[in-house]
């Protein structure tokens, strides 16, 4: 668990999740530190994406409880939760024919109802999200014409337009080349610093996770094995235990973060 005293609005308390014939998470407890970027790492099929989906109540837990602001998240109204927490899944899909602006406007859905139609507040939230992600000049472009990195920025803009304090990203760098991975993670880091948003994201690249996160969580076998600052988590012992990888860990000569060099 995160040390007592750390402010965590979103918590998993001894949660378990099972799929037919397989337990994915087992009595897992975790707090997402407020105002920080948390990276969740681990081998394939260890439960990273399942954990993120459980935190967002997209996947029901079979035991334990996820709480948001001290209350069980599954007891809260969906619209209220959607105004507090946004999640970007691993491979989001959108209908054909959408422009960037069409997609980003969908982030305002939790605020719409029969009694509340589109407002100036909605327009301002969309404009702000486009500006933060550098997409104002591309708002009229079709999603299908964008590069992979631009498309990911558009999806993040949609999540930002939702105007939540908590942002969950499931493998946001999937399918991106290294320059676009770094660009996207730098954007996430900057958003955290500029807006104070709490971010939790699943990443495969442990070196990028160590560079861009304040807090790291390493899963194996459906349980939290390590967590803390990257300098505490990323060690030769951890990589051997979690990934069965022999390595040397050095300080990145440019940024000073731990950097894994496989043996």
UniProtKB/TrEMBL annotation:
Keywords, in A-Z order: ATP-binding, Cell membrane, Ion transport, Iron, Iron transport, Membrane, Nucleotide-binding, Transport
- Where is it located? Cell membrane
Which intervals hold domain ABC transporter? 10-246
Keyword Cell wall biogenesis/degradation present in the record's keywords: the answer is no
Annotated Gene Ontology cellular components are: plasma membrane
The UniProt entry, under Gene3D superfamilies, shows: P-loop containing nucleotide triphosphate hydrolases
User: How does the protein associate with the membrane?
Assistant: Peripheral membrane protein
Looking up InterPro entries in the UniProt record yields: AAA+_ATPase (IPR003593), ABC_transporter-like_ATP-bd (IPR003439), ABC_transporter-like_CS (IPR017871), P-loop_NTPase (IPR027417), Siderophore_ABC-ATPase (IPR051535)
**Which Gene Ontology MF annotations are present?**
ATP binding; ATP hydrolysis activity
GO biological process entries: iron ion transport
Q: Which SUPFAM superfamilies match?
A: P-loop containing nucleoside triphosphate hydrolases
Give the family this protein belongs to, as stated in its UniProt record: Belongs to the ABC transporter superfamily.
Name by which UniProt lists this protein: Putative siderophore transport system ATP-binding protein YusV
